[in-house]
Amino acid sequence: MYQIDPERNRLVVDKLKGQFNEAIEKHEMLADMLCISVKKEVIRHCLQFLRDDKDLQFNFLTTLCGMHYPETSQLGVVYHLHSFVNNHRIRIKTATHISDPTFPSATTLWPAANWMERETYDFFGIQFGDHPNLQRILNVDEMTDFPLRKDFPLEDQTREDKDDSMFGR
Amino acid sequence: MAKELETDYWERDLVHTPEPKEYNTLNVGPTHPATHGVFQNVMLMDGEFIVSTEQTIGYIHRAFEKIAERRPFYQVTPLTDRLNYCSSPLNNMGWHMTVEKLLGIETPKRVDYLRIVIMELARIADHIICNSVIGVDSGALTGFTYIFQDREYIYEIYEEICGARLTTNMGRIGGFERNFSPKAWEKIHHFLKTFPAKLKEFETLLVRNRIFMDRTINVGAFPADRALAYGFTGPNLRACGVDYDVRVINPYCSYEEFDFVVPVGQNGDTYDRFMVRQEEMWQSLRIIEQAIAKLDAMDDKETYFAKDPRFVLPPKEKVYNNMEALIWHFKIVMGETDIPAGEVYHSIEAANGELGFYLVSDGGRTASRLHFRRPCFIYYQAYPEMVKGAMLSDAILTMSSMNVIAGELDA
Amino acid sequence: MIFLFFMLSAIMVISALFVVFSKSPINNVIFLIICFIAMAGHYILLNAQFLAVVHIIVYTGAIMVLFLFVIMLLNLNKAIIPQKSRLTRIMAVITGGIFFLVLLAATRQTFEIHARYPFTSEIGLVANVGKTLFHEFLLPFELSSVLFLSAMVGAVMFGKKDHPNEAE
Amino acid sequence: MSEKLNPIIAPTIAEAPEGISGQGFFATSIEKAVGLARKNSLWPLPFATSCCGIEFMATMAAHYDLARFGSERLSFSPRQSDLLMVMGTVAKKMGPVLREIYIQMAEPKWVIAVGACAASGGIFDTYSVLQGIDRVIPVDVYVPGCPPRPEQIIDGILKIQDLVGNESLRRRNSKEYEDLMKKYNME
Amino acid sequence: MNQITSAIQIIPLEYYIVLSVTLFSIGVMGILFRRNIIAILMCLELMFNSVNLLLTAFSAYHSDPAGQVFVFFIMIVAAAEVAVGLSIVVMMKRNVESVDINLLNRLKW
Amino acid sequence: MQNLTNRSKVVSDKKMTFLEKIYLPAILRGMSITLSHFFRKKSTISYPEQTREFSKVYRGQHVLKRDELGRERCTACGLCAVACPAEAITMISAERKPGEEHLYREEKYAAVYEINMLRCIFCGDCEDACPKEAIFLTDRIVSSQYKRQPFVYGKDILVEPLDPEKRIDISARQTDAVRKFKENKKYAHNK
Amino acid sequence: MDWTLYIYKTIFLFIILLVTLLVAMYSTYGERKVAAFMQDRRGPNRAGPFGLLQPLADGVKMFMKEEIIPLSANRILFILGPSIAMTTALLTGVVIPWGGTLTIGGREFSMQIADLNIGILYVFAMVSIGVYGIMIGGWASNNKYALYGSIRAASQMISYELAMGLSIVALVITTGSLSLHEIVQQQHGMHWNIFYQPLGFLLFLTCAFAETNRAPFDLPECETELVGGYHTEYSSMKLGFYLFAEYINMFISSAVIATLYLGGYNMPFIHQLGLSPNAVTLLGTAFFFMKILFMIFLFMWIRWTLPRFRYDQLMNLGWKGLIPLAIFNILATGVFYYLNELF
C-alpha cells in the first residue's frame, strides 16, 4: 500500500507556511493525501515554489480539475502534484466565488495543464488568466452553459423514448 | 523589387506580387482510418512534412463526470468500462479500489490476487490491440489477426468470469460477483501455456524486420523532460527512459509482493513504445504466474469478496431467506448506505498510464464530484510537438503507438 | 499510309496549338503528351521503332511525368499567372506566323535530296543504331554522359533547400 | 440454442430463378441477380467511434471473419462504400460529420447502427450525446448490445443482406425514398 | 510489317519538313506567347521534338543511322535541360511564390 | 532523470546487424510464418451455421423467471429499475387479484414489465439487484431489427415459457451457496 | 495478304484480353482468399461455392453503383484517369510470348501477338504511360489525399523504373536480345535466367512490386495514411477500373518476370516425354501459367507479410540501394562476359 510519510507532509506545510504565510488557508490530512487550501492570489507562485524547491520537487502535475460548491456558491480548482523523486503526492485546492471565476493559469509551469484547464473551462466556466488558447475542448463551441455546474441538467432534453409515458420514471 | 518591375519598359502587365508562403492543410480525421476513434488533426503540410498540427477532440464526449454525479457508486462501474474500452477490467478494478479506499473496505488477499490476474490479463489485451494496430498502420495486417486470436481468448476468460466480452462491468465493490469457475481457471492456464509462443511469433514478424525498424526508430521521439512536463505516464513515459510505474511507486492491490521488471526505452520513439509494451506483456505473464502460484498456495479457495456487510451486497441465499440481509440489500442497491464524506485520490497503472480517480463524497447517495485522470487526454496534447517536422506516415504511426483511446480521451 | 501520316500530323499540330493556347498547365502537359505519342507514331512510320519506344519512355514516361509532377507538387494550377498583354500576344502570333513562312520559304528552296545509301529498312533497329552510336559517336556519347551528370548535380543543387531549418 | 439463431437462408448467388412468365420475368430476374450481387459485396465504411469499434475489429479478425460475406474490404472513403456501419457513441459534435459522410456516399447505400449508443444513446443519456443516429440519418438496421457480440454484428449484416437482396432497383428513385430523404433535409 | 517498312517510300520527305517547320514555329510562338515558365519549357520541348522528327526523317530517307543517333543526343540534352529547368522552377516557386517569367528577367530575386 | 526504482531494464535495441540491414532474412522469416499459417487449421467460426460456445454466465437477453409451479417470481419491487444505469427498465405494478395465485407468486406483480433492449447495456446490475430471483440475464443474444419499436421487450418475450421443458436454465449463474440453498425445500423462498 | 494470320491474330488477341481479364478478376478473389488463409480466416465463401462468384458480385455491384463526379473535379480528366490506367495495363500483354508455336493444318501459328524486336522496351513504354492514369486521376479528383497519392505514385514509379531498366540491362547483356521471344527461347531446358542473374531477378522483382503499387510499396493508396490514395474520390466502375488495373498489372508483371527470368513457357524435360509438338506447346503454356500464378501468389504472400515503407525510405531504397546494386550487377555481368571471351 501507499505509505503516508508524515515527515514529508510536515516539511511541505512548513515550507509553504514560511513562504506564503497566511495565504495558506487550511491544511488537513485526508484519507491518503495532504490537502492544502491556498488563496487564489498566490496559487501560481505556490505551485511554482512547490515545483522548483530543491527539497520538495513536485515536478509532475498529476491532474487538475474544477469543482463546484453550490452551497457556498464557489468554484474551485484542485491540483494534484506528485514528486517523483520523493514519491510524495499532495493536493492543492483553491476556490473563488462563482461571480468571478478567474484563476491564474499553470500552463507556463506545466504544458500538461493546457488541456486540463481548457477542460475545466469547458465544464465549469473557470477562466484561466493567461492561458494561451482558452476555448471549449470537449463540447461544441456554440454551447453557452457550463455543464458540470450542479444546476445544469444531465439528461438530454430531446430524448424521445423517455418522454413516452411508459418510459417515464 | 516589385517597384522595379513595374517600370519594365516592355511589359505593362500586372506584376505578380509574391504572396506569403503557402502550405497545404490536410484534414486528418475525424473519420480518417488512422485516427481509430475520433479526433481531428488539421495538419499544415509542407509536402510530406508536417509543419504544425491542430487537434480537435470531443467528438465522442459523453459527460462521464456529470453522469457519475447522478449515479450510485456501483453504477459508475459500467461507465469506467467505457473509458479505456480496450482494457475495461483494469478501469473497473481501479474504480472499485477507489471506492474501497473511501469506504475503508479491506479486501482479502485472495481478492487482491484474483484482481491482479484479471488486471494483468487486461493489460495484455490492451497492449495486444495497441501493438497490433501499430502493425496494421504500418501495413502489416497479418500480425494483427494472429495476435488478436489471443485477445479473443482473453475475452473468453472474461466471459467465463463475468459474462461479457469487452465492457465487462467485472467485479463489485469489495470483490467479485462470483468465484472463478473451474472452466475459467482452465482457460487461464491454457492461455498461459499457449500465449508465449504466439507472442514470440508476433515479435518475429515485426521486431527485427528492418522495414518495421526503419518505420519506427526515431519516429515521434520525445525527450524525457518534455514528456514529464506534458504529464506522460505509463508505457509512453517509460519509453522515454523514466521508470515510473504506479505498481512499483505506490503499490496497490498487493503489487508489492510481486517480482517484475519495469521495462524502459531509450529516447521515447515509436519503436521504444512498441518494445516497452511488448516487454510489459511478458512481465504481465510473469505476474499472472506468480499470482496463480500464490493463490494455489492459499488454503482458502472460496473467498471472492470482502466481508463488509455495510457496503457489500449480502450473498443471495441470505437475501432470499433473511430479512436482515434483504434490508441491507435494498439499502445498498438504493444507495442509502451511510457513505462517509471525504475525498480520495486513487491511481492505478492502467494500460495507458496512471489512471486516477479523484472522488469527492459529501455523504450523499452519489459522489458529489468524480474526476477521472485520463492518461490519454493528458498526453495526447503533446502530439503536435511530437510530430512536428515529421512525415505524414510518421505522424500516423506516432498516433497509433501513443495508443490514444477515444473513450478515454473524450470522457 | 498517307492517311495515317496526315492523321498523326493533324493530331500533332492541333495538340501543339493547344499546348500554346490552353491556359491551364495541366492541360498543356496532357496535350503535349498526346503530341508526343503521335510523334512516336511518326517514328514508327519512319521505321525507327527503337527510337519510337525510347521516345515514349524518355519523353512521355520521364520528362512529361516530371512536368506533371512539378505542377502537382507546386500546386501551380491554382496560382493563376496573368497572361501577357494582348498586344504582346498578338505580336507573338504574328511573329510565329512570319517565322513559319520564312522557314517554309527557305525549305522550298532546297534542292532535291538524294539518298546517300540504298534504301534499307533495317537502320532503325537497335543493332544498327547501337553500332553507329558506339563506333562513330563514342566520344560525344561519353561527353553527353558528363553533361547529363553535371545537369543532375545542378538540379540537385538547385532543388536543395538552402537551410533546412529555414522552412519552418 | 435454437432460439439464439434467426432463421437465415444461406445466401448463395447460384439460386435458380423461379418460374418464367413473360416480360415480368426479365425485370425481376435482373433485379434478383443485382440484389444477389449487391448483398454479397457490401463494402462497409466502419464509422467506429468507441467500444463497438473494438468488437468490429473482432468481427473482422480471424474468429468471426466478416470476409465470408464478401465484406472485408473496408473503404474509408465514403464514395466507395455501400454500408455505413455506425459503431459507438455519436456525440452532438459528431452529428454533422456523420450526416456529411452519409451524403457523400454513393447510392445505393445502407446504414446499420451498431450498439446501444449509436442506436439510442444507450447509457449516455446526457446533454452531449445524440440519442440515436436516426436523428440525423436514416437507419436500416439496429443492432442492440453494448457492445454487441460479433455474432450480433454479423446478424445485423445478414439482416442488411436480406434487405439488399430484396430491394427493388427502382427504390432509390421512388417517391417514398425521396420523402425519406426530405425528412432528413437531404436534397 | 512489310507495309510499314515501305511507308516512307510513299510519303514524300517534304511533308515531314513542313510538319516539323510547323511544329517549330508553334513552339516559337508559344515561347513568345506565354508567361508561365513551365509552359515555356514545354514549348521548348516541342521545338526539340520537331527537330528530332526532321532528323529521323532524313535519317530514314538517307538510310543512315547517324541521324537517329543525333536524336538520342538531343534527347539527352533535353532531359538535362528539363531537369535543370524544372529545378529552377521549383526554386523560383519556393522563393518568390510564382512561376512568372517576368519575375526572372532580372536574374535575381 | 534518475532511476525511481531498481527494477528498470532497457528493452529496445536499435542497432541493426548486417543481416538485418539487408532486409532479406527477416522478410524470409516473416514469409515462412505466414506460409505456415496458410496451411494451418482455420480458427474461423462460420457463425450462422456454427455457433461459438457461449459461457454459461454470458450476459445476454433477459428472462423473467417463473418458479417451479409456473408462477411469476417478480414482485415489481423496482430494484432492477433503480439499479439500471441505462434507465432501460420500466414497470407498472399491480395487485394480485384472488384467483390469480397460480400466475403470480406474491401479492404484487408487474403488470407491465418492459426493457428497452436498445438502451440496455447488459451490465447485469438488474440481476444483481433482484432480491426475488426473478430477473436473470441469459446466454441468448438479442437479434437485430429493422425498426426501433420492436426493441421494447414486454413480458410476452421476457417471461419464460410455462412449459417446464422450455424453461431457461440459469443455475450456472448462481453461486454454489445459492444452489445449495435452493436444494433445501424447507425455506419459504423455495416453495 | 495472309488473311488466316490476321484472323488468327485477332482471335488470339481477344483470347489474351479475355484471359487477362479473367485472371485479374480471379486474382481479386485469390487475393482475398490468400489473405484470409494466411490470417487463419476462411475468406469469402458465401457467393457461390467457395465464394467463387465473389468477383462477379463485386463487378455487378460496382457496375450498378451511382457514379459520382465531385463538383470541384475536372470532369474530363477524372474520367480519363481510370481509362488510361486500364488501357495501358491491357496493352502490355501483346508482346508476351504465351507459348511456342502451334501447327494447325501445316501452318505455324505463334502464340504471341506481336514479336517486337524491342519487346522489353515496349513493356517499359507501356508501364511508363500507365503512371498517367494514376497521376491524372488523383489530380483531377481535387482532393488532397488523392493528390498526395498521385504525387507519391509519380515519384515512386519514375524512380523504380530506372532501377528496373538498369536491372534489365544486365539481363540483356547475357541474352543479347531485346525480343521477349528470343529471350524465352534462350532459356531452353533449365537454363533459366534466374540462375544466371539471381541479383538481377531480385532487383527486378522488387521494382515490379513498386511499379504495380503493391505492398510493401503501396504508398500511393495506403489506406491508413491516405484513406484511398489516388482513388479516394472514385466510386462505381471507375474505381473498379483502378482496382482492376492493379490486378492486371500484377498479372502482366508476373508474366514478364516469368518470361524474363523463369524460362517463360519452357518446361524442363518436356521433350523427353515424346509428345506431339502441339501438345508440347500447350503444355508449355500451361506451365507458363503455373509460373505466373506462382508469381501472383508471391505478390500476395509478400503483401500480407510485410509492413510498408515510408516515402523517403522508399526513395532511399530505390536510389541508394537498388540502382547502385543494379549498376554493380551490370558491371559484374560485363566483366564476367569479357573474361569469358578472353579465356
Describe the protein in words.
The complex is a heteroheptamer. In chain A, 24% of the residues lie in helices and 27% in strands. Chain A has 169 residues and is an alpha/beta fold. Chain A has one domain (6-151): Beta Polymerase, domain 2 (2-Layer Sandwich). Chain D is an alpha/beta fold and 187 residues long. Chain D has six helices and four strands. Chain D has helices at 22-39, 51-60, 95-104, 115-120, 150-165, 175-183; strands at 44-48, 83-87, 110-114, 141-143. Chain D has a four-stranded parallel β-sheet. The longest helix of chain D has 18 residues, at 22-39. Chain D starts with 21 loop residues before the first helix and ends with a helix. Chain F is 21% helix and 14% strand. Chain F has a three-stranded antiparallel β-sheet. The radius of gyration of chain F is 27 Å and the shape is elongated. Chains in contact: A-B, A-D, A-F, B-C, B-D, B-E, B-F, B-G, C-E, C-G, D-F, D-G, F-G. Strand 4 of chain B pairs parallel with strand 1 of chain F.
Concise synopsis of the structure shown:
The complex is a heteroheptamer. With 169 residues, chain A is of the alpha/beta class.
Order of helices and strands of chain F: EHHEHEEHEEHH
> How much of the residues of chain C is beta strand, in percent?
under 5%
**Straight-line N-to-C gap of chain C:** 59 Å
**Unreliable residue stretches of chain C:** 164-168
Q: Which radius of gyration of chain F do the C-alpha atoms yield? A: 27 Å
* Average of per-residue pLDDT values of chain F: 84
Name the biggest interface: C-E, 91 and 79 residues
E-strand count of chain F: 6
Q: What is the H level of CATH, i.e. the homologous superfamily of the domain at 1-79 in chain C?
A: NADH-ubiquinone/plastoquinone oxidoreductase chain 6, subunit NuoJ
CATH domain fold name of the domain at 1-79 in chain C = Four Helix Bundle (Hemerythrin (Met), subunit A)
Main β-sheet of chain F, in a few words? Answer: 3 strands, antiparallel
Q: Note the total helix count of chain F.
A: 6
Structural class of chain F: alpha+beta
The CATH architecture category of the domain at 62-190 in chain F equals 2-Layer Sandwich
The largest beta-sheet of chain F arranges its strands as: 3-4-6
Seen as an oligomer or otherwise, the chain set is: heteroheptamer
Mean pLDDT of chain C: 79
- Poorly predicted parts of chain F: none
Distance between the termini of chain F: 69 Å
Give a quick set of tags describing it.
heteroheptamer, C: 168 residues, mainly alpha, Four Helix Bundle (Hemerythrin (Met), subunit A), 6 helices, globular, F: 191 residues, alpha+beta, Alpha-Beta Plaits, 6 strands
Topology of this protein?
The structure holds 7 protein chains of 7 kinds.
Chain A: H1 6-20, E1 24-29, E2 34-38, H2 43-52, E3 60-69, E4 74-83, E5 88-97, E6 102-103, H3 113-124, E7 127-128, H4 160-163
Parallel strand pairs in A: 2-5, 6-7
Antiparallel strand pairs in A: 1-2, 3-4, 4-5
Chain D: H1 22-39, E1 44-48, H2 51-60, E2 83-87, H3 95-104, E3 110-114, H4 115-120, E4 141-143, H5 150-165, H6 175-183
Parallel strand pairs in D: 1-2, 2-3, 3-4
Helix pairs in contact in D: 1-5, 2-5
Chain E: H1 2-10, H2 13-33, H3 37-62, H4 66-96
Helix pairs in contact in E: 2-3, 3-4
